[in-house]
Design goal:
The complex is a heterotetramer. Chain A is mostly helical. Chain A has helices spanning about 1-25, 25-45, 50-75, 85-110, 125-130, 135-155. Among the domains of chain A are: about 1-85, Up-down Bundle (Four Helix Bundle (Hemerythrin (Met), subunit A)), CATH 1.20.120; about 125-160. Chain A has six helices and no strands. By secondary structure, chain B is of the alpha/beta class. Chain B has helices spanning about 5-15, 35-45, 105-120; strands spanning about 20, 30, 55-65, 70-75, 85-90, 95-100, 120-125, 150, 155. Chain B starts with a helix and ends with a strand. Chain C contains 16 helices and no strands. Chain C is globular. Residues about 330-340 of chain C have low confidence and may be disordered. Chain D is an alpha+beta fold. Chain D has a domain at about 75-315: Cytochrome-c3 Hydrogenase, chain B. Helices cover about 45% and strands about 15% of the residues of chain D. Chain D contains 15 helices and nine strands. Chain D has helices at about 65-70, 75-85, 90-105, 110-140, 145-165, 185-210, 215-220, 225-230, 240, 250, 280-300, 355-360, 360-365, 370-380, 385-390; strands at about 25-30, 45-50, 50-60, 175, 180, 320-330, 330-340, 350, 370. In chain D, the strands form three sheets. Chain D has a four-stranded antiparallel beta sheet with strand order 1-2-3-9. In chain D, α3 packs antiparallel against α4, α4 packs antiparallel against α11 and α4 (about 110-140) packs antiparallel against α14. The radius of gyration of chain D is 21 Å and the shape is globular. The chains are: A mainly alpha, B alpha/beta, C mainly alpha, D alpha+beta. Chains C and D meet through α7, α10, α13 and α16 of C and β1, α4, α5, α6 and α7 of D.
Chain lengths: ~170, ~160, ~450, ~400
């Protein structure tokens, strides 16, 4: 009983926040709704006993990704901060997301859920062992992907030749 | 160099522009024609004997009695430690003179102040705006015939 | 003359009740507070003692779990509030003493102990301003998003064995996560204020806090590797046995990791010299420029609550947690007070308080760093350095486990050497403090003495 | 007439050099008139690109109190209290400048003791003013404690002033013809006590602030003002000396018997960065305090007896004529251009405030610097708005 109450305590805000992201027009508020949704989902993880996952969700997604998202969005001008897709755009977007949702639902239905006892999903040492044991290949692959992403970001942000820095002495010559 | 030496050097350069000279203390100066001012200023600054590199002050003095607006430029040389002043006398009704801010950039703000408070227009000044008074103020307060403003933007002043 | 007409602001709803109530209460209480300052002070202290005792003794497993949880959460909330209130008062006293002033002396009777309470009362009565162009819901929400996570971090902090609300396998990560979420409120406040200064503060906060989380986490991981657990209670337990068994002295990497953690934690609390998000000489007040009244108090509280939280984390991870530095000498028995069965929370609070005091000390001593230097310091120095520390700590653990006799000897020498270095640092600190205290008249000068009777 | 090439092209209006591939919008930031680090009611419009300031345009005039217009309506003696309000942190020096201008034009001789007292008080006030500059510069950099230390020492100086003339900020002590009152009993001893206490404190400031690693990195290489730029914009005082120009009116054109004292003129050496950076301008002030202590000690040792006030008529009339007289104020050269038409009040009095000229270089220095450097720059120029706006 209590579990169900708590489930709805987290699930309803998650759904509401997700809808608010979809229906909102203010891009900054959408960023905050996004972080609210992440926190709610993290709550669901806690409810399921996956403490590690929940905490990592908050630490990385809310504390990192959502903050950077809000940061980036914040720097856009206030006029741009209000967005509203046009009618044609809305139809197009609805089609794409509908197809994606359908795919997701189908894959869930055909996933073949085995009734397997997961050995201590919240045990960090177990997670660590499986990451560096059974799933070492995918894990390393993801690491390489992240490295490539980081290099790409560094490439994009590299100082250009004509970029001015504060210490280039240009400001003081007359 | 003494003031008389400076005047001698200056006369060698441009005797035609000099209207009158005063070599005595406490205020040795030379009165030049307004159109010669920038040339004289540049000479005073760059001449190896004079090197007036520090423009100390620009002050405008209003003389309604003889219909004149006097602008004096007080100079000092940090290399030779001598002081001197250059003056121009302008027409009070429409005082305008070439800006010396190309010679001494320090003149920029002094000239803006003279424009603001005395109404002297400095030609070829890079940014001649009011500096102390609000932008939309009328009149030039330091002129002798200035009438006190009664109201400014709904703000009433008691006499 | 022209008169500026100030719009009359009428309080409404709950704020009206609060303001009226606070004003009425202040009128009644303030004179009595002054008269009975000593009694109130002692009563508050006694109540705290009783409360702690009750929580420690009578919250037994027979009670339903939610009542127990409720009591403990309320206790922690009270503790956090007390930390903030005492912290604000202490900040003013510490700054005063550092600057050869007295700090608050009048409110209450003894050294202005009621100053923060009076401040709080004043703030509650203040006009609750929301800028016209502000994003109102976010503006209202931001202080809560800042304060609540900072408080939530306390839920996982162990004050001793059994003195913890929830000790899970993820205790450390939970505390870190909560400290990370705090940023969200700060940038929310900065954006919603619709002030350019606030926006700058929020930008700086986002840059700085997100960057410094990484070295902070890495320094802590170096210690986690040494213990082999993310459970804060386990980490604390692993350091039983006095000064030399504290993790900070275990190996040189951990010794350095303590300092990198401390620096990074200063940055993540927005404390000087990293107080750029609210740097008053540059950004007026940074992200909370537009806040007044109780919302401002919440930001203020959040700062002190977070200060204590990061110091407590440093205490648990590096400084032996709740263990007394002398417990190794007294043959395994803790030094015990008669009234309490267990003195461990006292030790824990004492050590954390010391670290909080060091934060204050830094704040009133150092100038502020510029934003590019903050980022350089993090990305170019602190981040690679903490990565190296993490690596070094892991390698150390690898060799330590295999029990090479030669390495063990080497490790022991280093271990005790570092302990002695720590003792030396502490001794130097006390020597300096003593020197300052005994020469205070000379250092401050006759002028300040004449003008400050009783200093 | 030969044409002379002009060296400095006025280029106040400056185009921001934004990287071509990233289109960013300039954010216009209004700093002041109420801002903690503008040292009064200065307003600076900053054009920023993120944390980078592309252009800074100062707007002044918020503290304009028509001092020059008032001067034309009051007598010479009555104007002395108005000079207090120019640079309100160095009122003694302002009094001295005005008194000297009037005395020079009127040919008034001041007694020797008065001259010595003038030196003592203006040097004490220089220390007080530099203490404020140092302390508030620390405040601009985010270090609160040096500010309080400096004010602690300044209090002592203000106590000395109070016992001599009754005022703590607006003294009007140095009047035309000398000083207003002689020293009270025991003043010299108390002044010596202060100097003995104060001199070691200077090294304390150095330990706490000047050589602090963070402080050096915040101020070194920031706001570099090369010597030729400093001269071109007529910076004077510590700002000019910070750029390495050894120029001090007390040495160059000594007034009020400054030639009888032995002191050095400290200049910036660029020891923590480039010559003429904020740190140099700051450190010149610290070194000047030491020199001021030296001057005061000598003056106290040789303080002659005698009257402190020359005979000056109550309604002073100056001969028709004009004079430009400058003194070395803590912030630079304070000049009075005094034009007299033979009446009892000045016909025209133009005040050359050193802060006014020092501030005019701000748009040049504050290009392509960071937002935090603006407060470093403003603090190192050490402006007093009372003097800028007059």
């Amino acid at each position: 009983m209590l579990e169900k109450v708590i489930f709805f305590l987290f699930a309803v805000p998650a759904v509401v926040a997700g809808l608010a992201i979809l229906l909102g027009t203010n891009i900054v508020r959408m960023a905050y709704w996004f972080s609210a949704m992440l926190v709610s989902v993290a709550g669901l993880y806690f409810l399921m006993g996956a403490y590690f996952l929940g905490v990592i969700q908050i630490l990385v997604y809310v504390g990192g990704v959502a903050v950077l998202l809000a940061f980036g969005v914040m720097l856009t001008s206030r006029k741009l901060a209000r967005l509203r897709p046009g009618r044609g755009e809305a139809v197009w977007l609805a089609g794409v997301s509908g197809v994606l949702l359908l795919g997701l639902v189908l894959s869930i239905m055909h996933a073949g859920w085995e009734q397997r006892q997961i050995v201590a999903a919240d045990s960090i040492s177990e997670i660590g062992r499986s990451l560096l044991g059974d799933f070492l290949g995918p894990f390393e692959l993801v690491s390489v992907l992240l490295l490539v992403a980081m290099l790409g970001a560094a490439y994009l942000a590299r100082p250009k030749a004509q970029t001015h820095g504060p210490r280039d002495g240009k400001g003081t010559t007359i | 160099m003494t003031p008389s030496d400076i005047i001698a050097v200056l006369k060698q350069y441009d005797a035609g522009g000099i209207v009158s000279v005063v070599a005595d203390l406490p205020y040795p100066h030379v009165l030049v024609k307004a159109e010669h001012l920038v040339a004289v200023a540049a000479f005073l600054k760059t001449d190896p004997q004079l090197r007036f590199d520090l423009l100390r002050c620009i002050s405008a003095v209003d003389w309604p009695a003889n219909n004149g607006m006097e602008v004096s430029y007080d100079l000092i040389s940090t290399s030779f430690v001598h002081t001197f002043a250059v003056k121009v006398m302008l027409d009070r009704r429409d005082p305008q003179v070439e800006s010396v801010s190309g010679v001494w950039p320090a003149a920029q703000w002094h000239e803006r102040e003279a424009f603001d408070l005395m109404g002297v227009r400095f030609l070829r000044h890079p940014d001649l705006r009011r500096i102390l008074m609000p932008e939309d103020w009328t009149g030039h307060p330091l002129r002798k015939d200035y009438q006190d403003v009664v109201e400014y933007r709904g703000l009433k002043f008691n006499p | 003359m022209y008169t500026f007409e100030r719009p009359h602001v009428e309080y409404q709803g709950l704020s009206r009740v609060i303001v009226r109530g606070a004003a009425a209460l202040a009128g009644i209480i303030a004179p009595w507070l002054r008269r009975l300052a000593w009694v109130v002070f002692l009563a508050v202290a006694a109540m705290l003692v009783v409360f702690i005792w009750v929580v420690g003794r009578f919250i037994n497993p027979l009670l339903p779990w939610f009542i127990r949880d409720l009591v403990v959460v309320l206790g922690l909330l009270g503790f956090a509030c007390v930390v903030a209130i005492i912290g604000i008062w202490a900040e003013r006293k510490v700054s005063g003493r550092i600057q050869s002033r007295l700090g608050p002396m009048r409110t209450g009777a003894w050294h202005g102990w009621a100053q923060s309470l009076a401040d709080g009362l004043k703030f509650v009565q203040k006009e609750d301003l929301i800028p016209r162009e502000a994003d109102e819901p976010l503006f209202r929400l931001a202080p809560y998003v800042t304060l609540v996570p900072a408080f939530c971090a306390y839920l996982a902090l162990p004050f001793g064995v059994g003195w913890v609300f929830r000790s899970g396998d993820v205790g450390l990560l939970f505390v870190l996560a909560m400290l990370a979420v705090e940023v969200l409120g700060v940038i929310m406040a900065g954006w919603a204020s619709n002030s350019k200064w606030s926006l700058y503060g929020a930008m700086r906060a986002a840059c700085q806090l997100v960057s410094y989380e990484i070295p902070m986490g890495l320094s802590l991981l170096a210690a986690v590797v040494a213990v082999g657990s993310l459970n804060l209670v386990d980490i604390g337990q692993a350091q039983a046995g006095g000064w030399f068994s504290w993790l900070v002295f275990q190996n040189p990497f951990l010794f350095l990791a303590f300092f990198t953690y401390y620096i990074a934690s200063l940055a993540s609390c927005k404390r000087s010299p990293f107080d750029l998000p609210e740097g008053e000489s540059e950004l007026v007040a940074g992200f909370h420029t537009e806040y007044s009244g109780f919302r401002f108090v919440m930001f203020f509280f959040a700062e002190y609550v977070a200060m204590f939280a990061v110091s407590a984390l440093a205490t648990i991870i590096f400084l032996g947690g709740w263990h007394s530095p002398l417990s190794g000498l007294s043959k395994g028995t803790q030094m015990q007070f008669v009234a309490f069965g267990d003195t461990s929370p006292l030790w824990f609070v004492l050590k954390s308080t010391f670290l909080v005091w060091v934060q204050m000390w830094f704040r009133w001593t150092l100038p502020r760093i510029r934003i590019d230097q903050v980022m350089h310091a993090c990305v170019k120095y602190l981040l690679p350095f903490t990565l190296l520390l993490f690596l070094g700590s892991s390698l150390w653990q690898l060799y330590d486990n295999q029990a090479h006799p030669a390495f063990q000897g080497f490790a022991n020498i280093l271990h005790y050497g570092l302990g002695c270095v720590g003792l030396l640092l502490l001794g130097l600190y006390f020597a300096g403090a003593g020197y300052g205290y005994y020469n205070r008249n000379r250092l401050v000068g006759q002028m300040a003495r004449n003008h400050l009777p009783g200093a | 007439m030969k044409e002379i090439e002009l060296q400095y092209q006025p280029d106040l209006l400056h185009e921001g050099e934004v990287p071509s591939d990233i289109r960013t919008e300039e954010l216009v930031l209004n700093m002041g008139p109420q801002h903690p680090s503008t040292h009064g009611v200065l307003r600076v419009i900053l054009h920023t690109d993120g944390e980078l300031v592309l252009k800074a345009v100062p707007y002044i005039g918020y503290l304009h109190r028509c001092a020059e217009k008032i001067a034309e309506k009051v007598t010479y003696r009555q104007f002395t209290p108005y000079t207090d309000r120019l640079d309100y942190l160095a009122a003694m020096n302002n009094n001295l400048g005005f008194a000297l201008a009037v005395e020079k034009l009127g040919g008034i001789e001041t007694p020797q003791r008065a001259d010595y007292l003038r030196v003592i008080f203006s040097e004490l006030n220089r220390i007080a003013s530099h203490l404020v500059a140092t302390g508030s510069y620390g405040l601009d950099m985010g270090a609160f404690t040096p500010f309080v230390y400096c004010f602690r020492e300044r209090e002592w100086i203000l106590d000395l002033f109070e016992s001599a003339c009754g005022a703590r900020l607006t003294y009007s002590y140095i009047t035309i013809g000398g000083v207003r009152d002689d020293l009270p009993d025991g003043w010299v001893g108390r002044c010596r006590d202060f100097l003995d206490y104060f001199e070691p404190k200077i090294s304390e400031y150095n330990d706490l602030l000047s050589f602090n690693h963070i402080f050096v990195h915040r101020t070194g290489n920031v706001g570099v003002c090369p010597p030729d730029l400093a001269l071109a914009y007529a910076l004077t005082g510590p700002c000019l000396r910070g750029s390495g120009v050894k120029w001090d009116l007390r040495k160059a054109t000594p007034y009020s018997r400054y030639d009888e004292f032995d002191f050095d003129v400290p200049v910036g050496r660029g020891q923590n960065g480039t010559l003429g950076d904020c740190w140099d301008r700051y450190f010149v002030r610290i070194e000047e305090m030491t020199q001021s202590v030296r001057i005061i000690r000598q003056a106290l040792d040789r303080l002659p007896d005698g009257p402190v006030q020359a005979k000056v008529p109550r309604m002073l009339k100056l001969p028709a004529g004009e004079i430009y007289c400058e003194v070395e104020n803590p912030r630079g050269q304070l000049g009075f251009h005094l034009v007299s038409d033979g009446g009892t009040s000045p016909y025209r009095l133009k005040v050359r405030g050193p802060s006014f000229c020092n501030l005019s270089v701000l748009p040049v220095l504050a290009r392509n610097c960071l937002l935090a450097d603006i407060s470093a720059l403003l603090g190192s120029l050490d402006i007093v708005m009372g003097e800028v706006d007059r």
